[in-house]
Amino acid sequence: MWAFIVRKLLYYIPVYLGIILILMGALRIKGDPAYAYLGKNATQQQLELLRQQMGLDDPFLIQYVKYLGKIATLDFEEESWAQDGRSVRDILIRSIPPSLSITVPTLFASVCISIVIALISAYFRGRAVDQILMVLAVLGMSISYLVYIIFGQFFGAGLPQIKGVYTPFAVKGYEPWMPLLSEGANPINWVTYCLLPVIIGVIVAMGYDTRFYRAVMVEESSRDYITTALAKGASKRKVMFVHMLKNAMIPIITRVMTTLPFLITGAILIEIYFIIPGMGFQLINAIRANDFPVVQGFVAVFAVIFIISVILTDVLYAIVDPRIRLS
Amino acid sequence: MIRRFLRSRGMRKFRRNRLALFASGIIFVYFTIFLGIVTTEILDVTGVTEAQLRHGTRIRVLPRLHPGFLQSSSTEKRYLDINWHKDRLGRVFDRDLSSVELPRQALGELDLAERKVIEAPLGEVIEQYEAFLAAYETLDELFYERDDLLDYMLSVELDLKDARKAGDEAQSEELSAEFDEIQAEAAEILPLFDEALEEAEARLADLMPPPTGWDGVVYGFRTFLGSDVSGRSIACKGFYSIKTAFQIGFVVATIAVLIGTLLGAAGAFYGRWVDNGVMWLVSTLSSVPYLVLLAVLAYMFTGHEYFDNPTQYPELQLVKLYTAMGLAFWISTCRVIRGEVMKIKELEYVQAATAIGFGRPYILLRHVIPNTAHIMFINFSLLFIGAIKSEVILSFLGLGVSGQPSWGTMISNSKDDLSNFFFWEVGTASILLFILVLAFNIVSDALQDAFDPKHV
Known about the structure:
The complex is a heterodimer. By secondary structure, chain A is mostly helical. Chain A has helices spanning about 1-30, 35-40, 45-55, 60-70, 90-125, 130-140, 145-165, 185-220, 225-230, 235-260, 260-265, 270-275, 280-290, 290-320, 325. Chain A is globular and about 85 Å long. Chain B is an all-alpha fold.
């Protein structure tokens, strides 16, 4: 087992070096980041100062090695260009809780609801209920993410407010709930701010997930052990919800595992549209503002998180299925 | 390869699927519109070039944020339209037109696409304008009178309701008498106002007649979905965006499928360091979340001299999207093709070809890759919609199309108008996008069922 883990880790080291190489190249290919940030009215002195601060005047390879050293020692103390007085690490740590408070409930709810719908659909396979559900799933898949967000906000937050009766959802914005991070925080407000983005995220995810889970279940229900169980006289309901569901969970868990890294990166579009200061929001704003240290740091961290979760998935697999360990 | 593919069993199965055929028909309609827009420039049959078509999406046709066909104009809206026309006309006619060097050119500023100022001697045009102005003044006076009256009527009506609720007999009787009086007055003024409105509209039509014949049809097309923030035609923008979408879809899907197939097949077929290299590249690019990758790649081009300069090089603006999406999308194709080639390379016909003595590259290109055609086809249709949907998202992030209309820019530019219940622009773009994506989803599902039924 340990040999497997070490092999995986060794495999991902060149991958990570590649990511950082591509990232640093992409950020420098269009020209000097310091010039892009300061604009053409900057004096030579300011440009030089900024370059020296970031080490941009070194040759590319030396910058690359230096940056790898910084990542290895978890040194993200560089100051952001666009947000004065905040280091990259500061921005990073502050933007993780908002992202998680949107993505974790979204993932949990969408997986649960999708599995239930897929079970219903697989139970009534070929009948009207199944067909209607699958038509709805295809229709739902075909609507653009952005359209969901725009109309979701409009009908979800706009209309109840216009009536002036009761406001279950905030239109946009965010408020932290942890008393440790901010004093006087109110968890109820936090729920108001997060509810609508979560609901929209669930609806977006549902079309694709339901179809996938149903396909898994349908395939699973044509296996021999199902026929055996039915032949022995077990009721169809019991076979579906006990025998089949257990086995169908394996591909479902795989799919959920592969989406785990996106929990941290956050639902970028939802964060931007609802102005939730999560990871995705900070990254896209940094890209727009030519905030070079933040872009570089964020993508480097994204990649680390991604790789760690991929390795975790592989290890979990290896525990479940010993054949993988040896291949 | 393509003929053999079209005659294959999977294709016959696909042709039996009625829904998929209908969806293919819809895609064909879109494709025809796309071809129509492209050929107008190449062949120049109608005397309209593509540049003119693109320009046509920028001309003002109506007042700003004018609703389309379903919301029949209310009286207030009609009055506001007249008001808008009066302001525009005033800006030109208030100058002394006889002293302007080219009065015709000054009048040309008023043209709304096909709806133009009448061709007549200058004196006559000014006479028409003055007639319109006179009609407008009576209308304006009546409007304020009507407005006051309606306000008053509403307040009295509310008071009356309150009084009835409170059970105050004397006051409610008094109020109802007053209400009747106002209604009698309104019955006098309202028809007068409607008359004045029609009169002003008729005078306006004399000055700027609504186009007839073919021009009328074109103008009708331009206006039937309303206008956007700067009065441009939503219908023109929406339908022209089909071209943008197909350009992006075709180029990105082609690039991604080609790169993915070649690298994936080569990696699986040759094995060893080729495979390791390909897999390294795949895991590297897929270790960055795809939207982040797209954003960083699109960021590479922002502010570029040629590729981010819509005024001077409108043709080059899509290159950044092609590059970013092409580099991000080939990964999925590469994985699938690699898995398939792993299976194919063990098959008898590949062994037979090796035994005959064909070279490895020849076997790869002649025997292995053609047998992955169905996967290429399915992936092409999946990536096609993937690209169009990503364009919408990138445009929203401010990294997308510039210099020509696209559904993404339409949706993201007009999302704020939705709070004024102006849904025409968002709606047009989303519905056109939705139909295309739905059709492609159905077709790629049917393709998958026909060629690869075991696939989950």
